[in-house]
Amino acid sequence: MKRTMAVMLAALFFSGVALASDGSLEKVRAQKEVVVGFCAQYPPFESKNLATGEFEGFDVDLARALAKEMGVSVRFVDAEWQGLLGGLGKGDFDMLLTCMSRSEARSANANFSDVYYRLADVIVVKKDNPDIKGLENLTGKVVGVQVGSGSEQLADSMKDRFKTIKRYNYNPEAFSDLKFGRIDAVLVGATFAIRQSKVDPSYKVVGAPLAEAEIVAVMKKGADALTEEVNAALGRLNKSGEYRAIHDRWLAM
Q1: What is the pLDDT of residues 92-105, one digit of tens each?
Q2: How far apart are alpha carbons 229 and 225 in whole angstroms?
Q3: What is the annotated signal peptide range for this record (predicted)?
Q4: Is 158 exposed, middle or buried (0-12, 13-18, 19+ CB in 10 A)?
């Protein structure tokens, strides 16, 4: 009996040490806000409204809803895409909510939330291009991708098919080169592609979706308490129907 009690006490002690070492949720509650990092260059997930100067999009509304469920406010920090994971590691943000996939964040050895969206990659070409109808027609072609994106990883996985992979800091740069005939196609997430084709009829999506990425919120490695709280909040938003309302507001096709 004494030995059993000693084991139980030891387990409680070490459990307490582990919990105390993870102050991720306590930090957010103490500052009364969750600092969300993103790159506001990717509508309809996140962008800046030029008329109002306000951030808007699916991730923006989702972050606000998550913060409300957690009982805190939200502060958005717009940063360069390539610097987001490094900034998270340095403590610049509590969480990244920026249409980032597991594969994009895996190199950072970070914590991931439950999957909150599944995003297909697609092929975009000029609307008047009659030759490229799918992946089979991209052999020997020049394709554009955003650096650090899941689309870049996808292109690299089949690089022998292409003549060249051109890499851009942001997708709009790739779309501009596509419009003026400097590249043959862009590989990009379906929601961005469809939005761009609606804004500018110069583009069209062709062929079947190439792959599906699991989109997650990203926390610093070891931020287990905050990760659990975000997952619980996501669950409540799904159950209440608020997630579906946000989805339909921005991502309904």
Answers
A1: 999 999 999 998 89
A2: 6
A3: 1-20
A4: middle
